[in-house]
Amino acid sequence: MDNFQIETAQNVSIQQNVAGIGERILGYLIDMLILGAYWLASIFALAGFGIDNNDSGNVMIFFLILGVPTFLYFLLFETLWDGRTPGKAALNLRVVKLDGSKPGLGSFFVRWIMRIIDITLTSGGVAVFTILLNGKGQRLGDMAAGTTVINEKKKVKLSHSLLVDIPENYAPKYPQVTVFSDKDMQTIKTVYDDARRNGNHNVIVKLSEKIKVQMEVNPDEKPILFVDKVLKDYNFYTQQ
Question: Most CB within 10 Å of its CB: which of 10, 69, 123, 194?
Answer without folding.
Answer: 194
